[in-house]
Write a structure and sequence with these properties.
CATH architecture of the largest domain in chain B: 2-Layer Sandwich
Structural class of chain B: alpha+beta
Order of helices and strands of chain A: EEEHHEEHHHHHEEHEEEHHEEHHHHHE
Oligomer: heterodimer
CATH class of the largest domain in chain B: Alpha Beta
Shape of chain A: globular
CATH architecture of the largest domain in chain A: 2-Layer Sandwich
CATH superfamily of the largest domain in chain B: Metalloenzyme, LuxS/M16 peptidase-like
CATH superfamily of the largest domain in chain A: Metalloenzyme, LuxS/M16 peptidase-like
Structural class of chain A: alpha+beta
Distance between the termini of chain A: 62 Å
Number of domains of chain B: 2
Strand order of the largest sheet of chain B: 1-2-6-3-5-4
Strand content of chain B: 15-25%
Helix content of chain B: 40-55%
Strand content of chain A: 15-25%
Helix content of chain A: 40-55%
Radius of gyration of chain B: 23 Å
Number of domains of chain A: 2
Shape of chain B: globular
CATH topology of the largest domain in chain B: Cytochrome Bc1 Complex, Chain A, domain 1
Radius of gyration of chain A: 24 Å
Largest sheet of chain A: 6 strands, mixed
Largest interface: A-B, 75 and 82 residues
CATH topology of the largest domain in chain A: Cytochrome Bc1 Complex, Chain A, domain 1
Largest sheet of chain B: 6 strands, mixed
Chain lengths: 426, 411
């Protein structure tokens, strides 16, 4: 290579087309449970997700959903917690359980060669979890102690206060646990919740990885006696505040944790995908306006982001950051200024193209590999959407105009609709 | 199995390539052999501050991030004791933009005072957010000087204190760049939907004209063998007592590393491990307990760190850890237990091999370790360990004379 290259000109790059989304297939196993299959990749690792109705919204009181989920694997009628952990570890498998506001998930990662051995444990915990008293006590004590530590984190406190404020303290999206909640539940509470939401029944199953017939047959064999959980999830109560202002004083805190935001439309609304673009421009990536202004130009913070979050029956938008106490007012002023600019000034063509290209690249990353594809697929199932949702998203990104961005900002980002929650020192 | 192609340019740049046609992406991972151990003791935290400056524009490119984002890409970086590692992901069709950006900042950074001043503030806020404004956030600031007395691992990558970051000048930046940011001090790993032929063409096009430098490292002493227990007690406004025990152990590239890592798994990784079952579940002495290796290039640490249950005496809890260790040393390890941690390791390794970014990072790191074949052979190295090896290693490591203990007490 003897020719001198011109480094001051960027190599030509293409607008992204031809997104290859490997779509999931759905087959019904013998008892009408849908088995969703994402067959992609070339690894020996299989991921299995079993989705149940054990989310926070179905619990009668806190923290039953979380406790049931955490204790599912801590003993069944025939095996102790240690036996389950030890034997699954012997197969090199990872079994995780967690619950969200809307549902609960039992997740298994293992090598293909151990898949059938591991499935018997998954089946056992869905059908026969026992919730031994000693395990419940350990869970209670350790959860209370973890809470004590978390309560010293400004970011933890501000998150709880924010969700509780905008969604209301009894919404599954706003509720949080205190020490007493952990102390005051019983084994009976867990068993009742387990019977209603897990025992012998599941909502649907997702398999991802390099999936062949032997893996599918294996699922058929193990899960054929489970019932499809057709029980509908409970409706939620909406009682949140608008334009709430809270300052929680933590003496001695070096920085203030800030959350500014509101309830907003969720994924099922026609504006949601456009809001994803607006959110990106404001604070959704490293090149966002908030990051550029408040971190990269003024050095006020290590990081500032805005987030759009969708739940099944609600949604929210917020800006989050941690700023030195004495620079807090300056930071807040700049945040509101950026919101105002979005409402009043048209975004330049250059900035819009950059945001669009970044978002398309980001979507491409989000469909790379079987497990990312499984996450995209689950979203479609949960919101009753199909793959057109993503193809349309690509077109929306490509075609959105500066005027639409400004209109969206005027509709959704008015100061009077935003709440401001701060945890820090005065 | 990750199939790797390797070649070296005349200027010393080592290049690794892996083609993955199942992905629509391509990753460039650039590892510079410079970390916080290359800093001077009175000027710590600089390698990490410098990492921030690498995003502030280069000789021919004003704004690194915008150019990358315009092509649909994303990037980040991290600094450790030993290395500074930069990575970017792009749609495979646009990967040349990545070569253009990475090579230009290797050629010459745009040294400017504004960027330095702002990133100093950003890093100081990072220091506060992660190390000062978190419960237990300063554990490493306290622990490292207790463990290391002469070696530069005695300060954390963020730096000993904020004033070191504040005192950095533009001259420091220029001299650090000239010393360490050059092709013969870097490893470039390419992974994704890009053929070897194309990769070679692009590497030669963008990197051939970057001159090598004469790399002069600071000299420093090896840490002398510890001969007495190191202990320190600190008090802070935290809800629970924490005990941290740090034992000197081998280097990441030593054959003993695999034995030590399995020892760590047996003792304290996961829900079936010994410490978890005995001390969290059985005796409820701890609410959380972690075991891990620092895995450094030079002699590293075997760390056991636990939050002591409220009401339990921290010294009694510590004794219970030592009791479990003694049990392992005197009773040995059953074949089933060893096979279990080997099986788990196999899944871990395969799991870490997923995705083009992980593969690129792994290739670069194995090359740094001096043996690119490790990309595919580590499973076998773990499998060849036997139970007696692990017990012998335990006997070498677990003595109070080889241990630094930090008692972090609730006021």
């Amino acid at each position: 290579m003897n020719s001198i290259i011109n480094r001051s000109v960027a190599p030509s790059s293409e607008e992204l087309n031809n997104f290859k989304i490997i779509e999931g297939n759905i087959i019904s196993i013998s008892n009408n449970i849908d088995l969703h299959i994402i067959n992609a990749g070339t690894s020996d690792i299989i991921k299995l997700d079993i989705i149940c109705d054990g989310g926070v919204r179905n619990q009668k009181k806190n923290p039953i959903a979380a406790a049931t989920s955490a204790l599912l694997r801590e003993g069944t009628n025939t095996k102790t917690a240690l036996q389950i952990a030890d034997e699954l570890d012997f197969y090199g498998a990872y079994l995780q359980t967690h619950c969200t506001a809307d549902d609960s998930i039992i997740n298994l990662f293992c090598l293909k060669k151990h898949f059938d051995s591991c499935l018997s444990y998954v089946l056992d915990i869905i059908c026969n979890s026992y919730f031994p008293d000693n395990e419940i006590n350990i869970y209670k004590n350790n959860s209370i102690q973890r809470l004590l530590v978390n309560k010293q984190r400004n970011s933890f406190l501000v998150r709880r206060l924010f969700y509780s404020s905008i969604f209301g303290p009894i919404s599954p999206y706003g509720i949080y646990s205190e020490s007493d909640d952990y102390t005051n539940f019983s084994r009976e509470n867990l068993l009742e919740f387990f019977d209603e939401n897990y025992k012998n029944k599941v909502k649907y199953i997702v398999l991802s990885g390099e999936i062949d017939n032997s893996i599918i047959n294996c699922c058929e064999t193990f899960f054929c006696d489970l019932k499809n959980n057709s029980k509908s999830i409970k409706p939620i109560t909406k009682s949140g505040k608008i334009n709430d202002l809270q300052f929680f004083d933590r003496n001695g805190a070096v920085q203030s944790a800030i959350r500014i935001g509101r309830r907003i439309v969720n994924r099922t609304h026609i504006d949601y995908r456009k809001l994803q673009i607006l959110n990106l421009i404001l604070g959704g990536y490293f090149g966002s306006r908030l990051m550029k202004n408040i971190r990269e130009e003024k050095g006020l913070t290590y990081g500032i982001y805005s987030v759009l979050e969708s739940f099944i029956d609600d949604g929210c938008f917020f800006i989050e950051t941690e700023i030195n106490n004495d620079l807090r007012e300056k930071g807040l002023k700049e945040i509101y200024l950026e919101l105002k600019k979005l409402r009043e000034i048209l975004i330049s063509e250059e900035e819009l193209i950059l945001a669009k290209n970044y978002l398309l690249g980001s979507f491409l990353r989000s469909i790379d590999g079987p497990f990312s594809l499984a996450d995209r697929h689950k979203i479609l199932v949960d919101y009753g959407l199909d793959y057109n949702y993503y193809y349309e998203y690509i077109n929306i990104i490509k075609n959105i105009k500066a005027k639409e961005i400004r209109e969206l900002a005027n509709t959704y980002l008015q100061e009077k609709d935003l709440s401001e929650i701060i945890v820090g020192s005065k | 199995m990750i199939s790797v192609n390797k070649f070296t340019l005349k200027n010393g740049l080592r290049v690794l390539h892996h083609e993955d046609t199942s992905s629509q992406l391509c990753v460039l991972n650039t590892l510079y052999c410079v970390g916080s151990k290359d800093e001077k003791p009175d000027h710590t935290g600089f390698a990490h501050l410098f990492e921030h400056l690498m995003f502030g524009g280069s000789k021919n490119i004003k704004d690194f991030d915008s150019e990358l984002q315009k092509a649909g890409g994303e990037s980040n970086a991290f600094t450790s004791n030993d290395i500074t590692n930069y990575y970017l992901t792009l749609p495979a069709n646009n990967i040349e933009t990545g070569f253009w950006l990475e090579s230009d900042r290797m050629l010459r950074l745009d040294f400017n005072q504004d960027s330095l001043d702002i990133q100093k503030n950003v890093v100081i806020e990072e220091f506060k957010e992660r190390y000062l404004n978190q419960p237990y956030g300063d554990i490493w600031l306290k622990l490292l000087p207790l463990v290391y007395k002469v070696h530069p691992y005695r300060w954390p990558t963020i730096g000993k204190n904020i004033s070191h970051i504040e005192n950095s000048t533009l001259e420091d930046v220029i001299s650090f760049f000239n010393k360490f940011y050059c092709p013969n001090n870097a490893i470039l790993a390419i992974s994704g939907n890009l053929s070897l032929e194309k990769a070679k063409y692009l590497v030669e096009k963008w990197y051939n004209d970057i001159p090598p430098q004469n790399i002069i490292r600071n000299t420093y002493l090896d840490e002398p063998k510890q001969t007495v227990p190191h202990k320190e007690t600190v008090h802070a406004e935290v809800p629970l007592d924490v005990v941290v025990k740090a034992y000197h152990c081998c280097r990441r590239m030593d054959a003993d590393y695999y034995k030590t890592d399995l020892l760590c798994d047996i003792l304290g990784t996961g829900r079936s491990s010994r410490l978890y079952n005995s001390l969290i579940k059985g005796k409820s002495l701890f609410s959380e307990l972690d075991c891990y290796l620092t895995g450094d290039i030079e002699t590293g640490l075997f760390i056991i760190e636990g939050k002591v249950t409220k009401g339990v005496d921290i010294y009694a809890a510590e004794s219970a850890i030592i009791e479990e260790i003694n049990k392992l040393m005197s009773n040995g390890i059953a074949p089933q237990e060893l096979q279990k941690v080997k099986n788990k390791t196999e899944t871990n390794i395969k799991f870490n091999d997923l995705g083009v970014l992980n593969k690129a990072m792994k290739m670069a790191y194995c090359e740094l370790l001096g043996n690119i074949d490790l990309v595919n052979t580590e499973v076998d190295l773990y499998n060849s360990v036997d139970a007696n090896d692990i017990v012998s290693i335990a006997k070498e490591i677990f003595s109070e004379n080889n241990c630094s203990t930090l008692y972090y007490l609730s006021i």
